[in-house]
Amino acid sequence: MSFRKKLMENNRRWAKEMKDEDPEFFTRLAKGQKPEILWIGCSDARVSAPDFVGLQPGELFVHRNIANVVYHTDLNCQSVLEYAVEALKVRYIVVCGHYNCGGIRHALENTEFGIIDNWLKEVKDVYQAHRDELRLIENMPARLNRLAELNVRHQALNVCRTSIVQKAWASGRELSVHAWIYDVNDGLVHDLKYSFRDPYSVEPVYRYHVTEQHDLEHTQ
Ligand SMILES: [Zn+2]
């Protein structure tokens, strides 16, 4: 069977099953989206978020790229973030990396492949910042998985360092940013326990609405 025939048949069957289960499902979706969660994940074909967190179409606003990197100069990522926060008014942002990530592995291979080498520079920066810890992990797959975790935390902080998220916090919006990781070996998602809910989550130099002085007052 050709891939076109297979995918079309799958689609017709899926649409029928959805409608049989909930006759108003598509009527409701057609009126618009109101997701509460923005999901930033890896492009890896094994990492399809709505499937492994059990959500339906309409419940997750999604941005994916190789190694789930959040660049402030990435027009695509920043547009998704701004639209999610300002127009859709999501309440949660999840940055979810995964173990056995090819992007993370490639970042440490010292090989030249093309544009992706430049894309993964941010992951190399994360390695460089944590190289003392990472070099102590002799098992290479374990070292890469730890780098994947550190990268998720770094990218979640990058979300918090944007003017977009900080403007939402300054306006009193309830918005939290979380770092999770998905294990392709068993299908389980793990909360890395890094949750950011206010501008005090980020270092003073990255803040736009509160200064270091405010920080001192906040912690006293
Ligand atoms: Zn990946």
In spatial order, strands of the major sheet run 2-1-3-4-5
Largest sheet: 5 strands, mixed
**Can you write the helix and strand succession as a string?**
HHEHEHEHHHHHHEEH
Instruction: Tell how many strands the DSSP assignment holds.
Output: 5
CATH topology name of the largest domain = Beta-carbonic Anhydrase, Chain A
Please work out how many helical segments DSSP would assign: 11
Radius of gyration equals 19 Å
User: What fraction strand?
Assistant: 15-25%
Summarize the structure.
With 220 residues, this protein is α/β, with parallel strands linked by helices.
Topology:
Elements: H1 3-21, H2 25-30, E1 37-42, H3 49-52, E2 60-65, H4 75-87, E3 92-98, H5 102-107, H6 115-119, H7 121-129, H8 131-135, H9 140-160, H10 163-170, E4 176-183, E5 188-196, H11 212-219
Parallel strand pairs: 1-2, 1-3, 3-4
Antiparallel strand pairs: 4-5
The structure holds zinc ion (ZN).
Residues 42, 44, 67, 98, 101-103 line the site of zinc ion (ZN).
Structural notes for this entry:
The chain is 47% helix and 16% strand. By secondary structure, the protein is α/β, with parallel strands linked by helices. The chain has 2 domains: 1-32, no CATH class; 33-215, Beta-carbonic Anhydrase, Chain A, CATH 3.40.1050. The longest helix is centred in the last third of the chain and has 21 residues, at 140-160. The protein starts with a helix and ends with a helix. 28% of the residues are buried. The mean pLDDT is 94. The site of zinc ion has 7 residues, from helix 5.
